Amino acid sequence: MAALKIPHLKRTKTSAQLIVKGKPFLMLPCETHNSSFSSSAYMDRLWAELKNCNFNTILGSVSWECIEPHEGHFDFSELDRIILAARGHGLHLVLLWFGAYKNGTSSYAPGWVKRDFGRFPRVRIRGGEAGDASPLKTVEVLSPFSQAAWEADGRAFAALLQHVRDIDEEHSTVLMVQVENECGVLGDSRDRSRLAEEAFAKPVPRSLLQYLAGKEEEEEGGRLHPEFEKRFPELRSAVLDRGAKSWEEVFGQSELADEMLMAAAYANFLGKVCGAGKREYPLPMFANVWLNTNNPSFLDIDDLPGAMGEALAVAGGTKPGAYPSGGPCPHAIDIYRFYAPELDMLAPDVYLQKYEWVCQQYRHASQPLFLPEQRADGRGARRAWLAYGTYAALGCSPFGIDETSARESEFTTPYGLLSKMQTHILEAQANHPEHMIGFFFDEPRDGASPAELQQDSWTHTLGEFRLTITRSFTMGKPTPGYGIIIHRGDGRFLLLGQGFQVSFTSIRASATYTGILDFTELDVDAEGNLSGLRKLNGDQRMGGELAIMPSLEIDRGAFPIWVTQPASTMVAECTAYVIEEPVNGV
After folding, report:
1. How far apart (Å, rounded) are the C-alpha atoms in residues 300 and 352?
2. Tens digits of residue pLDDT in 366-397
3. Which of 79, 289, 392, 489 is the most core-located residue (most Cβ within 10 A)?
4. Same CATH fold, 435-585 and 3-431?
5. Hey, what CATH topology would domain 3-431 get?
6. pLDDT class of 220 with cuts at 50, 70, 90
7. Which UniProt keywords apply (predicted)?
8. How far is CA 273 from CA 7, 156, 185, 250, 286, in A?
């Protein structure tokens, strides 16, 4: 098998791109509900509508219980029908392996695994609050310390990947695979089964300590994750001597030591399973993340009703066990990099965290960014532009999109534009990511004044110009917006999106004026070719001060002169220019 002929990741200047049939591919994905892929008949109702929403890649689960209902006997018939149907509709797939772990439980493991708790021991947790002496209780979670569990899971995963290779290698319908789903222990900070207690009593592996200590010596691109360093600032001093160190000696006598033990266990488990699959068919593979919310300032909850405590719970939880302890949260990424190098990326599920903060955490050390789950509403659709434009995302996938028609979906229009412009976005992502920015504006806050709304701005330097991006001009109610701006050299900027406006300031100290020389609306065909449509050198450029990309649904209010008009193609090019005049005639 020629690896470069199958979907694979290719490194770029600062990240990576997905290559499909020899060309870069921008995923415009969505994720179906948890069990949708268990029925090809159910999915047959959805394919056409999902394509009409302008999604080009569908994420769906393949569960261990469905493909191996009896040990050693595999049934891929339903999956085959789904792959063939997706291919017939011109859609790609990302398969989500619901093996041993799904949302901190083992609910999708086969019955023959669940019943054999002697061979496949379960996680045991305290029955009450953390720290109390309550009797232990058994939960429906396979212990990640069980070698029998990861070997059985790995055999099933390998059989799945071998089968996908056999039926799809020549077609590349399946692009990537997720390994397990939001793994970790819920209800306690760690597993307290016999196997787990034995692991906790052993010293931290010296190889892990050397890896973590060595990372602190590296250049910026290879440093430990900032969230790890924040929690363990004295790690180096804890491992200077050569003596054996316990988990509590290295990570503290707290739930953090429990969490790091579980991160090592789950990362080792996922690495074993991922490796088994890659040996059969080396597609890009990732693990997704149930995020924590230890810092309320990183929450994006403007539109969420209820108290802060409820918001913290909904957003993920503040302590290990409230969120899955041992999952690849930002402060555990380095543990996963050590134990599961087979994973190509760690992919956050982001709902209520601040979107840009999450993007930054999972782009650390030039890791490619993929968002397998995010909000399926307008807020999610707008934020995707930030991920694609500023953080070179491979794809941003709203979750639970099954019931939404193309007419109702708030992704139909923005993803339609991204689809048309993907050639230009991919070229910028690969060759000059520093010359592209993505951004968004949400629904205006109730009662916000025009001055307050102007504070909702994005500033960025592209080339020799400082850009200030705000909501687009309107006489009535301001609207949401989103966009990407790409600097094409010599002061030429490609503007994509709606509901924003941009002004330019030269970074030259000698500049006395910066304005807009030319502003042209562009037409774009299905292949992404651009052609001039209208000159926008009138009200749309406000006397050369800014370029307006209006909303599709503008509100003119009561103003009698209809100065602005709705967006047309949502694609334009403007040229900024600079005047450098002598000061005081000198």
Report:
1. 5
2. 999 999 999 999 999 999 999 999 999 999 99
3. 289
4. no
5. TIM Barrel (3.20.20)
6. very low
7. Glycosidase, Hydrolase
8. 20, 9, 18, 28, 11
Tell me the pLDDT of the chain averaged across its residues: 91
CB 452 within 8 A of CB 441: no
Q: Locate tokens 């789903």: which residue?
A: 181
pLDDT, tens digit (0-9, with 9 covering 90-100), for 106-146: 999 999 999 999 999 999 999 865 445 568 999 999 999 99
Average pLDDT over residues 42-62: 97
Total residue length of the chain: 586
Given the candidates 2.70.70.10, 2.60.220.20, 2.60.40.3930, 3.40.50.880, the CATH classification of the domain at 435-585 is 2.60.220.20
Closest residue by Cα to residue 62 from 91, 34, 88, 97 = 97
**For residue 448, is pLDDT > 90?**
no
- Neighbour tally for 357: CB within 10 Å: 15
Beta 345-350 vs 285-290: how paired, if at all?
Answer: parallel
**Is the Cβ–Cβ distance between 70 and 35 less than 8 Å?**
no
DSSP track, 43-68:
HHTTHHHHHHTT--EEEEEEEHHHH-
Beta-bridged to residue 274, according to DSSP, are none
pLDDT tier, 314 (very low <50, low <70, confident <90, very high otherwise): low
180-214 tens-digit pLDDT = 999 999 999 999 999 999 999 999 999 999 898 87
Domain assignments of the chain as residue spans, ordered by start: 3-431, 435-585
